[in-house]
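Suppose you are handed a protein chain with no further information: no name, no annotation, nothing but its sequence. What can you learn? This example shows the usual starting point.
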Amino acid sequence: MLGKVFGVMTLVALTFGLAGGRGEAMAGGVLEGASRAVEVTLTLAGMMCLWCGVMRVLEEAGAIRRLARLLRRPLAFFFPDAARRGEGVEEICANLAANLLGVGNAATPMALRALEKMQKSNPTPDTATGDMITLTVLNTCSVSLIPSTLLALRHAAGAARPFEVVLPIWICSFTCALLGLLLTRLLRGRTK
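A reasonable first move is to predict its three-dimensional structure. Written in structure tokens, the prediction is:
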């Protein structure tokens, strides 16, 4: 459906552009946009590869396991079943670390691995557990200390001060994550 909407918008824009005698400007815009898209894609791919590699090195070095041990008690409040069984805690910690670095693309595979581990002990496989819902909410509204993807996009777009958005991102992401965690905890208690 969305493809159809964008297709119609593109056809309308092309029709009005050609009817208005701006065909040459449109052709130049298309070529410049395509060039810019490749540049931005390479910038984002480089950033994602860097942080995915860093996360992999931290995981292989055992840093994620140590972080999981440190965070086991605080995480037990929001992920009681995972903490009690010890299933998916390392992946949850890796997900949190990647989200703190602002690399959602590297965090998502960790969340999926944690969800797979939690699913193994799920008594009702067709229904998500409270821990699974909490992880999904936390992955969606996570705290970003270093919003690297956004900073890379702002830098690639030529922003004069790409870092000026960091403080509002901290405020917004912390508020959203805290509210999301508290709501999932509150609703978990009501459903039991």
